Structures are given as structure tokens and as C-alpha cells.
Amino acid sequence: MRTSTGARVGQYAALLAYLVFLAFPFLWLISTAFKPPQELASLHPTWIPENPTLDNFRQAFDEQPLLRAAFNSLLAALGAAVIAVVIATPMAYVMARHRGRLGRAATGWVVVSQAFPFVLLIIPLFLVLKHLRLINSVAGLVMVYVVWSLPFALWMLAGYVRAVPAELEEAAAVDGAGRLRVLVSVTAPLLAPGIVATALFAFITAWNEFFFALVLLKTPEKQTLPVILTHFIGAEGVADLGPLAAAAFLATLPSLVVFALIQRRITGGMLAGAVKS
Amino acid sequence: MPTRTRITTLLVSLSLLLAGCSGGGDGADDGRITLRFQSLAWQEESVTANKELVREWNATHPDVRVEYVQGSWDSVHDQLLTSFEGGEAPDIIHDASDDLADFAYGGYLADLTDLLPGRLKSDIPRRSWETVTFGDGVYGVPFLQEPRVLIANADLLDKSGVRVPTPGRPWSWAEFRQVTKRLSGDGTYGVAWPLKEPVSATLNLSLSTGGKLFHRGADGKVTVRFEEGDRVVPRTIHDQVNTDHSASSTTLGSGGSDTLPGFFAGKYAMVPLGFSYRQQIEQQAPEGFDWRVLPAPAGAEGLTQGVSPQTLSIAEDSPHKKEAAAFVDFLLQPDNMVRLALGDWMLPTGTEALKDPALHTAEHGWATGTALAGHLRPAPAQSVRGYPEWKDKVATPALQEYYSGAIGMAELRKRLVEDGNLVLARYQR
């Protein structure tokens, strides 16, 4: 089916508008991070700082342990992503391939678990972690993040498993491959993009999470980036805008880089899967 | 390497990595006491002052080490509540008096009555202690406070020829209204009221006109009454916005910081702000911009206004309350209180600290603010149970609608009193 030139132009215009809409906050954040205080309080703000400065970055690093916090965030996010995927992959496979009462119950649990508000869970979780002596540790935080992201990860991965035709596994079995060989050589490569997408979801969820980190981590050496960012905000919501923007910009970079590196794998993998089916 | 071996290696590595980042408890078991002090200082100078004081304490008290923990105003209530419930609260807690009631009544904070030294008790005025007294106990030490002041564009003020008010001879509310009319015109408003939080601003300023709003009966129950003293401030703001057009209507929903660009651009001649906003103004004002600090208008009760001071409390669960109280006493020695006040651009509550010459200079309006210290009283809502709900569900929408001109004074009164008393009654059965 051929698309008319007008429709194509409309599509690109809509896409461009959407990109501008998405990019605006981030570009404004970058602009703010390089502005001196006088420009931040200007009635006619400009996109490009008139007197660009690195003072906001200097102040942000002087005042708060940003590198340490970034390391903690990375540790928590990577840990949560890897463990969530390791646990969710076989579970999702079972849910997708053996669709009985148990599978339906599991799916129901996934939906229901998403409805629980953070505030309802935080005190019981806190007490459990305290009993396990995991308060104020990144390990405890990773546990929470895994539990928190597991239902959605399961749901996501089960969809990817269902998209892999069972006939391929049957064909491999007919050719003499054992169960494990089928899973490793046939199913896993086709699932790769789904696993990557799920890991990315778990990573970004953990990277951005604030409330659990705020409550579970007590000492400055353990705190993650979202918690450290709030230290630039004072009473009545007054913010130290320049250093806050500088720190927020730096906090955004890792997840952008991870996404940029991985997104080609996701689309590539999806296309590969499409061809095979 | 076979796949199974690779997976096993990966899992073992991950376990080791996580084991490596597990917490190791609250410090060494060498007989030394470690206290955790959670500070909400956030401005560069203030954080520096707090950390320096902690360092000085640690240098002179080898047996009682204080660990500085950075908290955040933005999330302190939820974070403290969870910490209290889990028995993991910091020993020394920085907060504001209007946030303490639930914690005090909930038994989470230590009663400081017998823990504080006489020096500190007598140094801070009774009116400040009232802000942290709940029932029969004292649950915090009020140490920093800020009056609401008028920050004025000095050039516009001088050009208009109006009488410049001083703490000794402030404007009355009627005179203030006349002045803002004179300062308006040529694209300039006489005043920009940042009323994102209209309730605390209105209630606290209304103390100057004798407005109490909350009245406690002989049975201890609180009711809302909206009398003449309560009407002066809201009426003035309403008339400036809707009748005189000497106040900008667009800033009614703004926070204090949001008004600064317009203020620097000469769009507003005056902005009523908390005293600590001077730090932002000093930092952000364009070169050559001349600003001045003026006292808020006065009424039948003079310059009186309500405040909720910043406080230091001790957790009830702390096993080292005496040592924590000693640290609080050290932190609030007059010289140290001055350092904290200068760092936060606020006023100390201590009478000795208030005598410090650094707080009496004309520069940045310090002297004007210090002259107001004796007029500061506990915010009217401090001890009213149910106030947060009354504020969010009744007073905030009612005042916002009144200031924008959508409803009149009669409707405002009806909502604050009738709807308000229904809310408060539920908390006093």
C-alpha cells in the first residue's frame, strides 16, 4: 500500500512535534544547568545561556556526594535488573507455555500487585528488612526493587514468550535437541530482545525510584541519586535551581546512555523474531 | 566455558557483589557513642555551618561522636514517620514546629523538659517555647525563625516619594494599600502577593490586626470564628487585586521564587516574602539592582505575626538522650546559633544570639528583621488538631476563590466558619 506524500508529511510533522514535546524538558534542563543565577531569575529566559558557567556543577559536586550516589544508584539498578530478569525469565516461560489455572492466577496477581500504593507497603517492608538487618544497605534496596519490578517484568516477558512460536521448539525437539538445548539454542536467542527490554524497564524503574531509597537508606554514603537531588530543595519548595539542574542533568545521563546502547538490540531482536515466525 | 558454568559464575558474582554492599550496622563497637543528627540545612552556607559545628563537636568530644545525616524538607515528614515506626529514627531531628504535633502526640519524640540545661531554657523566650509545647511536654527546641517582610525595589520606592516604613514606624494596612496604589502604573504593580500557600500567609499576618480565627473554649475545644480582626488582611489583598489593581492577579498561585523574575524586571515594586528569601535575591539580582527590606504592615496588635520556627528534637527511642541533649545545647550556644542563623539567612530565637552585631547591620536588611524578632508569636494553627485537613479542604480553596474575586467576604466567612467547624469537630469528639 502506498502512502501519499501529504500523509507522509503529516506523519513526519506529528513525529517531530512529539519529539519536541519529549525533548523540551531535557533541553531546558541542560540550558538551566549552565546558567548563572542572574539568568535563572530573568523575566525573559533564553535557550542559550548568555554567560555560560560551570559553577552550578562545581557547587553541586562540592555540596553533595554525587559520584558516590551515582555509584549506589548504578549498583542498585543493575542488581535489580539482572536479578529480576534471572528470576522472571523461567517463570514467564512457564506462565506462557502452560496456560492453566495457575497461569491465570499468576496474571491476576500481577495486575492486583500493581494497584498497591507505596505508602501501604513501606512500613511492613521496612520491618521485614530491619529483621533481616538489611536496612541502610544497597542489597536491601535491590531486594525491594526486584520484588517491586518482578510482576511487571513477568507480564512483559510472558508476552515475549508467547510471541515465539512453539512449533520452533517442537521442530528442534524432533531434530533431537534435549529440553535444555531447545531453551538455550532456540528459545533464548528469540527471547533476547524481550529480556533486554525487561532488564531496561527494571533498570530505569530502580534508577529513578525515590521513596523506598529515601526511607531505607540512612547514611549519606549509601544514598542514591534521587535522594541526593532532594537536598537541593529547601522549605516551601524553594530550590537551589542551578546546582539542582546540574545534578539532575548528570543523573539523567546514565539511563540515556544505557538506553542508547541497548535500544538497537531491542529493535534488531524484534525484527529477527518477526522473520523467524 | 559451558553455559551452565557461565550462569553459575554470574549468579555467584552477583551474590558476592550484593554481599559486599550490605550495611555493616551503626558504627564500631569500641564503647564510643554515635549519635545521628539529621539536618535539613540545604543552602551552601547553611550546610557548611552545620558540618563545621559537627566537626568541632567531634574534635572536642571523642566519646560521643555525631554523624551528620542530610535530610530534605521536601520529604521529611514521610521519612521520619517511617523511621519512627521502624525504630530507626535519627537521634537528633531537625524539623519545623508545625510538623511536630503528630510526632509529639504519637510518642515518637522525647520530652525535653528535664533534658535541657537552664541556660538554654532561659535564653529562648516563652513565646517560642509555646510553639513546641504539646500537652505537658516540650518536644523540640525552637532555634531559627523568619518573619514575613516586604522586599522592595528601592529605586521605585524612592521615585514614588512615599514614606518609607521602619520597624519603629511601620505602615498601617490602610496606608499600605494607598502606597501600593501610588506605586502602580506604567506596567508596574505596587505589590505581588505569592499566595501558593494562602492560609499560613493570611493567618500569620492577621495576628497583626488581632485576628485569631481559632478560639479555644473552656472545655479545650477549638472553634473557628471570623471576626473583624480576621478580615483586614484578606480584604486588603482582595481589594488590591480586584478593586485597585495594584497587586498582580497572576502571582496569586505562585511561590515566592516565582515572583523574583518580575520583581527584578521592575514589574512589581514590592513582594511580601519570608526573611530568608534575601539569600536568593542577593544571589540572583541583576547587577546594580537596589533592594530594601521593609517591615510588614502593622495593625491593632502592632507588628505581631505568627511563625513556625525550625526546631531540634530528640527521638524517644534514642538510647542516648542525655548526650543528644548535650549536643543540642552545644549547637545552640549563642555564637553557634548566630552561625546557623547567618547560614540560613534567618533569625535566631535566642536572646543572647540576637544581640550579635552581625544581625544588626543595615546590609541585606538584617537590622530590620532583627527588630521584628520580639513581635513574632506562635502561628495560630500550631496546636489545632485537624488543621491540615481544614487548611487543604476548606481554607485554601475558599481563600483562593476570594482573592481571585470569585466569591465575596460573606461566602468566605461562611466557608471558613461553617464548613471549617464541621471538619474540626471530627477531631475533637
TrEMBL record, chain A:
GO terms for cellular component: plasma membrane. Keywords: Cell membrane, Membrane, Transmembrane, Transmembrane helix, Transport. The keyword Transmembrane applies. GO terms for biological process: transmembrane transport. Coiled coil: none annotated. It comes from the Bacteria. It is a multi-pass membrane protein. Belongs to the binding-protein-dependent transport system permease family. This is Sugar ABC transporter permease. The lineage of its organism: Bacteria, Bacillati, Actinomycetota, Actinomycetes, Kitasatosporales.
UniProtKB/TrEMBL annotation, chain B:
InterPro entries: Bact_solute-bd_prot1, SBP. Residues 1-24 form the signal peptide. CDD domains: PBP2_TMBP_like. Gene3D superfamilies: Periplasmic binding protein-like II. PROSITE patterns: PROKAR_LIPOPROTEIN. Keywords: Signal. This is Sugar ABC transporter substrate-binding protein.
